[in-house]
Design a protein that fits this description.
By secondary structure, the chain is an alpha/beta fold. It has helices spanning about 55-65, 85-95, 105-115, 190-200, 225-235, 245-255, 265-270, and strands at about 10-20, 25-30, 35-40, 45, 50-55, 70-75, 95-100, 130, 135-140, 145-150, 160, 165-170, 205-210, 225. It has one domain (about 15-270): Ribonuclease Z/Hydroxyacylglutathione hydrolase-like (Metallo-beta-lactamase, Chain A), CATH 3.60.15. It contains seven helices and 14 strands. The strands form three sheets. A six-stranded mixed beta sheet has the order 1-2-3-6-7-8, covered by helices on one side.
């Protein structure tokens, strides 16, 4: 596993919070005018009307242009179930390569069956420009992105380390919220426990950036923590909580949770790297809603 340098670079991290999905999109870079990566973008979607818009993604575009950045990568930490990816829109506006963990192929295979997608829907990840292997290093100008496979929430979850900052996806939430559910297809609480402890083995001052925040009443939205804070205070995974206790808690809690509001539209889009399904004869793209499947 990659260990940070003794004096790791402190990259600039800009978070853009989307209140509609409680999601944080990140732009990470060294300084003005350098290469950047965009992590976990959001395409706004109204489930009542089926309409999309780019208000959240446009905030990313504005930041990148205002700071003279060159987009090298548009990264997904996993195939999200709670928001649609804006990767194609951002790529068209700003350039860059789309990428996700190589195990997206397992997710594609499962959901191709759930949605009964057309036989020609590829399940080899070709929709993305690059599939990321565990431990791979990606160029980001004067920075490097070290990748870490962290399955458990889904089989394809990846964390991305840039200098002293780690973008953890849905492995961890803020300490007073805990951890992600593990009951989606391919999820596993025991696997998540091991993945989280890969992250928590990093130096205590390592900055951790959450993909979401669901703040308790009375707390403002936050999405930056540290390894030390998580090990001390995470309600599900702090030091002293063993694997068996975590798996028991997570399994019991997951059995009470409703499906995310956007899981059916989001997964259909996100396994396609954010592209809409091919238009039908009338020029309109359609999403499928499988009944009594999830």
């Amino acid at each position: 596993m990659h260990k940070p340098d003794p004096t790791p670079v402190k990259p600039v991290v800009h978070g853009i919070f989307d209140p509609g999905t409680w999601t944080v999109t990140y732009v990470v870079h060294a300084q003005e005018g350098t290469a950047c990566a965009i992590i976990d973008s959001v395409l706004d979607y109204d489930p009542k009307s089926g309409r999309t818009c780019t208000s959240c993604a446009d905030k990313v575009v504005d930041y990148v242009l205002a700071h003279g950045l060159q987009v090298a990568w548009i990264l997904e930490t996993h195939a999200h179930a709670d928001h649609l990816s804006a990767a194609p829109y951002l790529k068209a506006r700003l350039g860059g390569k789309t990428a996700i963990g190589a195990n997206i192929t397992a997710v594609q295979k499962v959901f191709k069956g759930i949605f009964n997608l057309a036989p020609d829907f590829a399940v080899d990840g070709r929709q993305f420009d690059h599939l990321i292997a565990d431990g791979e290093s990606l160029d980001l100008g004067n920075l490097r992105i070290q990748t870490l496979s962290v399955p458990g929430h889904t089989p394809a979850c990846m964390a991305y380390q840039v200098g002293d900052a780690v973008f953890v996806g849905d492995t961890l939430f803020m300490p007073d919220v805990g951890s992600a559910r593990c009951d989606f297809p391919g999820g596993d609480a025991k696997t998540l426990y091991a993945s989280v402890h890969k992250i928590l083995s990093l130096p205590p001052e390592t900055r951790l950036y959450m993909c979401h925040d669901y703040p308790p009443e009375g707390r403002a939205v936050q999405f930056e923590s540290t390894v030390a804070e998580q090990r001390t205070a995470n309600i599900h995974l702090k030091d002293g909580i063993g694997e068996a206790d975590f798996v028991s808690m997570r399994s019991t809690r997951d059995a009470t949770l409703a499906m995310p509001v956007l899981i059916l539209p989001a997964v259909q889009i996100n396994i396609r790297a954010g592209e809409l399904p091919p238009p039908e004869a009338n020029g309109v793209s359609y999403l499928k809603i499988p009944l009594n499947m999830l």
